[in-house]
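Batch job 17 of 40 flagged for manual review because the log was empty.
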Amino acid sequence: MIKAVIVEDSRLARNELKELLKAHVDIEIVGEAENVDIGFELIQKENPDLLFLDINMPEKDGFELLEMLDEVPITVFTTAFDEYAIKSFEYNALDYLLKPINEKRFEIAIEKVKAKIEGKTDEVATKKLSENSQIFIKDGEKCWLVKIGSISHFEIVGNYTRVFFKDEKPLLYKSLNQVEEKLPEESFFRVNRQQIVNTSYIKSVVPWFNGKLKLTMENNDEIEVSRRQSYLFKDKMSL
């Protein structure tokens, strides 16, 4: 059973989604909300697999809700505005639906949702994120939904954390310590006070001064492992 939440300020639009979902007995609507704050509480309580999210809502918009979440469910945006529809792909939403929602277009979105869920490996319920978990990052006017496993490393910038993935390096408005608490330990390693690396993205490791190590990441960033962490790193990587 796929647990779904609807966050949409229009009652008519919520009812439209519920009516369309009646044809899918394997999707259970566990709650609905008319604004971001109620939606946030509902998602924290129900931990849904799927989120139908209106973008343009009063007070706070859909992107602000995603920014509030530690882990983002599979998200299908709903919007009455074409401009948002195009942008949603930049944010890596699974899909978007223009209102009023076309039934055939809705079925295509649901097929994508089910394929995405079936492709996920079974994960033990834990407070930590998995490599398949995704987080929402908003930096200035740009937004991303980023899979944890696609992040190569994290770095302290003042009270915030810079996130490195592909050719992007936006700021996440959380401390590195907050980030570290959520990361899967099998993939990520705290190499020094300032940085955490995804060991899958290490291209080379060489001895450095005073018993330290130097890592070269796949994007060619060079990162120094502190002396204390170098011993732990060698043990972790069986070096």
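Reviewer: the log was empty due to a logging misconfiguration, but the result itself is present. The longest helix spans residues 103-118. Unflagging and moving on to job 18.
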